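Input C-alpha cells:
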C-alpha cells in the first residue's frame, strides 16, 4: 500500500498541455527534495488537448471535473487530495514551484492558510497586463481589504496553500473565478491564521482563459453580496440624507441662485432620493436580519430589534400614511372650495406622496423583517 502523502500539489487545468509539460517536471524535482511524502493531482476541467495524457505520463493523478470553472476545479482537487497540506497553483507555468517549501514550512509552522503576493515579488515583463497590474488587481484587492478588514494585498494570487482541516471548515461553494475571493473571505470569517508570502510571477505558457471584465465583475459581485452594508446601506443612507435635506429646502424656497428660481421641480428628485434611499436601507436590514438568524449574531441589530418591533414600526408607518393622507385631504378641501377649479398644490402633493410611500414601505417591511427574523430551531 502506498504511503499516505503529507503534501498534495493541486493543479487546476483546462487545455494546459504546454504549461503542464513545463510545470510537472519542475514540481517533481522540488518534491524530490522535500522530505515529506507528496502527490501531484491534475484536475482536468474539460480539456480537449493532451493535458490528461501529459499529466499521467509525468506521474500525476488525473481527476476529472465536468463542472466548468476555476472554483469547481479547485474544490475537486481539494476534496480529492489525501495530504494533510494542500498546495494549489495554476498549471500555466506562471508560478515558480521552487516556492513550495516556503508554503509547506508556513503550514507546518502553524499557519492555516498561506497565499502568495506577486506584488511583493518579481513580476516579469509581459506576465501581467498593465490593466490587471495597476487597476484590476489593486482595486479589487483594496475593496476586499475595506469590506473584510484584512491586510492581504494580492487576493487573486493563484498560488496558495491550506491545511486539509482548515479547508473542511470553510464550506466553499462558488465554481468560477470568484472562488479566489471566497476562499479568503471564508478564511477570514472562520478566523483562520493567514500568512502572505512574496512570490515571483512569470509569463504564462499557452493561451489565457481569463475573461477580464466578467471575471472581475464576478469577484466584485461576490464581495458585495457578502457585505450588504456596502451594497445597500451606504448608498441608501446617502440618498436618504440628500433627499431629507433637499426636500424642505425646495419646499420653503430656501435654495436660490442669481437669476434662477427652482419652483417645485427639484422636489421630485428629492422625493425620489428619499423613497429609493429608504428602500435601500430596508434592503440592508433585510440582508442583515437574515445574516443574524442564519449565519452569525450582530449585537447592534439585536439591540435595534429590542426597541423597534413590528408593532412600533407599523405605528410609525401608519403615522406617515395618516400625515400624508391629511395633506391630500387638505388639498382636496381646497380644490372643492375653488369649485373644482385650477390649483397650484404640487409641492404639497409631492410631500403627501412621499409620506404615504414611506409609510407603506415601513408597515410592510416591518412584517417582512419579522418573517426573516424567525430563527430556525
Amino acid at each position: 500500500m502506498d504511503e499516505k502523502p503529507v503534501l498534495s500539489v493541486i493543479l487546476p487545468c483546462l487545455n494546459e498541455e504546454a504549461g503542464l509539460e513545463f510545470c510537472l517536471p519542475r514540481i517533481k524535482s522540488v518534491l524530490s527534495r522535500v522530505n515529506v511524502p507528496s502527490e501531484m493531482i491534475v484536475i482536468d476541467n474539460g480539456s480537449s488537448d493532451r493535458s490528461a495524457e501529459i499529466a499521467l505520463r509525468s506521474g500525476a493523478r488525473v481527476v476529472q471535473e465536468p463542472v466548468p470553472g476555476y472554483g469547481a476545479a479547485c474544490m475537486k482537487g481539494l476534496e480529492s487530495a489525501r495530504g494533510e497540506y494542500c498546495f494549489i497553483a495554476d498549471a500555466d507555468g506562471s508560478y515558480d514551484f521552487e516556492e513550495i517549501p516556503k508554503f509547506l514550512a508556513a503550514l507546518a509552522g502553524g499557519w492555516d492558510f498561506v497565499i502568495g503576493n506577486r506584488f511583493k515579488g518579481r513580476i516579469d515583463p509581459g506576465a501581467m497586463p498593465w490593466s490587471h497590474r495597476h487597476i484590476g488587481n489593486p482595486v479589487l484587492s483594496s475593496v476586499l481589504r475595506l469590506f473584510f478588514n484584512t491586510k492581504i494585498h494580492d487576493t487573486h494570487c493563484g498560488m496558495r496553500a491550506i491545511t486539509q482541516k482548515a479547508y473542511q471548515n470553510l464550506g466553499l461553494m462558488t465554481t468560477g473565478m470568484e472562488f479566489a475571493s471566497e476562499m479568503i473571505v471564508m478564511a477570514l470569517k472562520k478566523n483562520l491564521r493567514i500568512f502572505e508570502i512574496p512570490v515571483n510571477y512569470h509569463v504564462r505558457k499557452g493561451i489565457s482563459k481569463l475573461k477580464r471584465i466578467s471575471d472581475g465583475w464576478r469577484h466584485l459581485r461576490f464581495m458585495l453580496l457578502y457585505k450588504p452594508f456596502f451594497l445597500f446601506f451606504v448608498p441608501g443612507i446617502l440618498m436618504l440624507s440628500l433627499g431629507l435635506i433637499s426636500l424642505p429646502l425646495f419646499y420653503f424656497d430656501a435654495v436660490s441662485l442669481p437669476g434662477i428660481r427652482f419652483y417645485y421641480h427639484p422636489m421630485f428628485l428629492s422625493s425620489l432620493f428619499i423613497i429609493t434611499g429608504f428602500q435601500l436601507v430596508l434592503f440592508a436590514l433585510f440582508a442583515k436580519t437574515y445574516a443574524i438568524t442564519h449565519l452569525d449574531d450582530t449585537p447592534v441589530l439585536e439591540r435595534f430589534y429590542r426597541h423597534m418591533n413590528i408593532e412600533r414600526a407599523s405605528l410609525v408607518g401608519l403615522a406617515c400614511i395618516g400625515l400624508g393622507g391629511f395633506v391630500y385631504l387638505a388639498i382636496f378641501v381646497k380644490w372643492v372650495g375653488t369649485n373644482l377649479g385650477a390649483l397650484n398644490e404640487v409641492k404639497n402633493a409631492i410631500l403627501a406622496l412621499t409620506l404615504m410611500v414611506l409609510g407603506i414601505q415601513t408597515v410592510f417591511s416591518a412584517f417582512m423583517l419579522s418573517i426573516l427574523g424567525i430563527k430556525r430551531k
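The two ends are 46 Å apart (CA to CA). The chain has two domains: 7-226, 228-372.
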